[in-house]
Amino acid sequence: MSLDKAPHEQGQPKVGVSRRNFLKRSSLAFSAAIAITPAGALLNTSEAWGLEVKGLKPETARTLILIARDIYPHDRVPDRFYAIAVRPWDTKAASDPATAAEIEGFIAGLDKAAGNGGYVGLGWEADRVALLREASSSNAFAMLRADLVTSLYNQPALWSIFGYEGESFSKGGYINRGFNDITWL
Amino acid sequence: MAARFSLDDESVVVIVGSGAGGGTLGNELAQKGIKVVILEAGARHEYDDFINNEWASFSQLSWGDARTASGSWRVAKDFPHLPAWIVKAVGGSTTHWAGASLRFQEHEFKTATTYGNLAGANLLDWPLTLAELEPYYARAEEKMGVTRTGGRPGLPGNNNFKIMKAGATKLGYKECNTGHMAINSRPRDNRNSCQQTGFCFQGCKWGAKWSTLYTEIPKGEATGKLEVRPESHVAHIEHDASDRVTGVVYFDKDGKIQRQKARIVAVAGNSIESPRLLLNSASSKFPDGLANSSGQVGRNYMRHVTGSVYGLFEKPVHMYRGTTMAGIIRDEARHDPSRGFAGGYEFETISLGLPFMAAFLDPGAWGREFTTALDSYSNLAGMWIVGEDMPQETNRITLSETKDRFGLAVADVHVDDHANDIAMRAHGYGQGRKLYEAVGATRVFPTPPYPSTHNLGTNRMSEKPRDGVVNKWGQTHDIKNLFVSDGSQFTTGGAENPTLTIVTLAIRQAEFIAAQMQQNAI
Ligand SMILES: Cc1cc2nc3c(=O)[nH]c(=O)nc-3n(C[C@H](O)[C@H](O)[C@H](O)COP(=O)(O)OP(=O)(O)OC[C@H]3O[C@@H](n4cnc5c(N)ncnc54)[C@H](O)[C@@H]3O)c2cc1C
Ligand code: SF4
Prior knowledge:
The complex is a heterodimer of chains A (about 180) and B (about 525).
Chain A lengths: L18 H6 L4 H5 L1 E2 L5 E3 L4 E3 L6 H14 L7 H17 L1 H18 L3 H4 L3 H11 L3 H13 L4 H7 L23
Antiparallel strand pairs in A: 1-2, 2-3
Helix pairs in contact in A: 3-4, 4-5
Chain B lengths: L12 E4 L3 H12 L4 E4 L14 H8 L6 E3 L3 H5 L32 H5 L14 H15 L14 H13 L4 E2 L38 H7 L3 E4 L3 E7 L5 E7 L5 E5 L2 E4 L2 H11 L24 E8 L15 E2 L15 E5 L4 H7 L7 H8 L4 E8 L8 E8 L5 E6 L4 H20 L4 E5 L34 E3 L14 H20 L4
Parallel strand pairs in B: 1-2, 1-9, 2-5, 3-15, 9-17
Antiparallel strand pairs in B: 4-11, 6-7, 7-8, 10-13, 10-16, 11-12, 12-13, 14-15
The complex binds flavin-adenine dinucleotide and iron/sulfur cluster.
The site of flavin-adenine dinucleotide (FAD) has 41 residues of chain B, from helix 1, strand 6, helix 8 and helix 12.
């Protein structure tokens, strides 16, 4: 099962999660949606995707997905796209210990500030965003936000949710496809 | 057949850069039978290779070598390593450009006289008048196929334009139309007409938009007098004891140092790289850089007063469909100090795709205030403000501590907004908001300047050698066979997009160079 394919393009998840394991790791909505497998991968059964984590702790990768959503919240965008946006950090962390340490340190700081249950344990978006605001002057936050603005929005598969049609040359441009179709003015 | 000249050929004219200025000058000279070598730092991508994808196209074409930014302008904070958006490829920024092609207004050649003494502004009249340039403007418009000139029809308006037009009418603006665009409104010059694909900033895959890449350059090559050498980065210009330039030293595509001899050198690397090259060419004879006896090389950097206004509507707009700059309002372009500033500005429609919109709408912003704007992406309409900014001696290109991969000092771009710039931008934002609200916008966003696309003034033209770097022909005051052929010649910036004027000056300069060569004056 891959992150880059839409759920309808792939079969049911192959990696099994025992119900017990699933429940143990997920007391809240977000962590219920994204489970951590015993092998340390992330698994979202309802959206039918999985993410292998190589350079970061699986918990960190999962928290990053929620942070990505809290930074750029779009209610109609599934977690899958946020997971894809997070993946380059994991890849970079796998080969660059300094990046790994910076990200782990940043998340550890947020978890500590969040108290029991950590960042993902904060059930209300407003509470999480308040923590992010406090952390927003840090270098780590600036780096995460700056990377995310490309890694999230530069996914062609996500553009249709926003009504952006992308590449148009192969379709002959818009000359016969509504470049001047406004009627409501 | 494209020519091939030897490195020792002392009779060639060497042009640095193949964009609006260099590409045009190269073709014009070749048409007159003069041998030309264009050295271009970037690679050659023909228009079939262009990509309808913002970031992918940006990596393909844009200048990504290091630059630094300083000063209090917001770009230095938002994009400290990307002060300007300029192309590094054959065709230069005419691959990315939108095609808006406007003549300067008469008073814009005489700003010192017209605007008077503005504290901090280094205003100077051009050593040229509109009347002198008019015949050359007409030739440039013909060459580029500019719409609404020479009997060529305008382009059809897209949705983004229709909103602008409706708002302009509500505000009582009179001069609003689909612009003077170097985009074919009908097939012309063996090129297609515009298919409204909406990726003008990513290179026109139809070839409908003028670019030196597929007009001037192949035409020049067809004469057998022009050679374009891509991936050739000029490091410095050399001179002899008699104060004549003798050639250039460059890094070829394999990173090897080469020396091309020349009878004449013309610098057209755009207004950041051109002064950088002159400064990097300092020698014991010219310790402050070539052609810099005035100390003005790199100074008076201008990038137009810019900013964008995006309006969000209840119903879809799909602003990205069709030409990126699909319309213009010229009513604010006049000089009318009663608005609280000197000079004027234009409104031009603009559109960014979702990836660029996310990066540029409000750089650094995050959270729901920001994302709810993007949620309504398809309901946004956009306009760009482009106005005259004040030349200031302290706004300048200097050599940075940072070095590029060849070990050459890169350019630092320092800008502080002038009070006049700030007042003009605020006026533009205000009028833009009124315009969109007049047609029912539910939210309006003032977007700060993008990395500069119009870069001007850093080798300014002046009557007197002590006031500037080049004379009215773009010939440096200090060195007779050294020319500047791009927007860095501009004495002041005008309210208009600069390229038509750059091309106009290049056509005129080619005549001057040819005549001087014939008389053996250079
Ligand atoms: C997105 C965008 C939209 C624009 N829209 C418009 C518009 O609608 N209307 C308008 O009038 N203008 C527009 N412009 C601006 C326009 O593109 C420039 O004003 C114009 O191309 C500048 O011409 P130039 O010859 O000075 O430099 P360029 O066209 O930038 O060419 C300079 C060339 O020199 C090369 N070079 C630099 N240094 C060296 C070196 N040391 N050795 C070898 N080669 C070198 C560069 O690689 C580059 O290819 C736009 C620009 C951008 C980026
Ligand atoms: S909108 Fe027209 S000019 Fe712009 S890229 Fe498409 S075809 Fe070319």
